[in-house]
Design a protein that fits this description.
Distance between the termini: 26 Å
Strand content: under 5%
C-alpha cells in the first residue's frame, strides 16, 4: 500500500466520483481506477498471507506470531479505505 494509493482513495471518498477525483489529483481516470484495483489486489494477497500464517500457527510452524497482528492491521487499513470509497460512491 503506497501513500499515493491511500491519497487517491481518500480523495475519491471525499469527492464521491472517480472522474472528479481524477481531475483534482491531476491524473487520468484509468490511472486512478488501476491504483484502486492494485489496492484491492493487495488486500487479497494479505488475506492469503493471513490464512497461511494462521495455518502455520495452528501447526506450530510459525516463528513470529506478531506477524499475524501486522497483517491484520494492514487488512483493516485497506478495508477501511475501500469501505469509505464505496460509501462515497453510494452517496453520489
Amino acid at each position: 500500500m503506497t501513500l499515493a494509493q491511500l491519497r487517491y482513495v481518500i480523495t475519491v471518498s471525499q469527492i464521491g466520483t472517480l472522474s472528479e477525483a481524477a481531475k483534482r489529483l491531476y491524473i487520468s481516470q484509468p490511472s486512478l481506477t488501476n491504483a484502486i484495483k492494485e489496492l484491492e489486489k493487495e488486500l487479497g494477497e494479505l488475506k492469503t498471507e493471513l490464512f497461511k500464517l494462521k495455518f502455520s500457527l495452528a501447526t506450530n510452524g510459525l516463528d513470529n506470531p506478531m506477524k499475524i497482528k501486522e497483517v491484520k492491521k494492514d487488512i483493516a487499513k485497506i478495508n477501511t479505505v475501500l469501505t469509505e470509497r464505496k460509501i462515497a460512491e453510494a452517496k453520489a
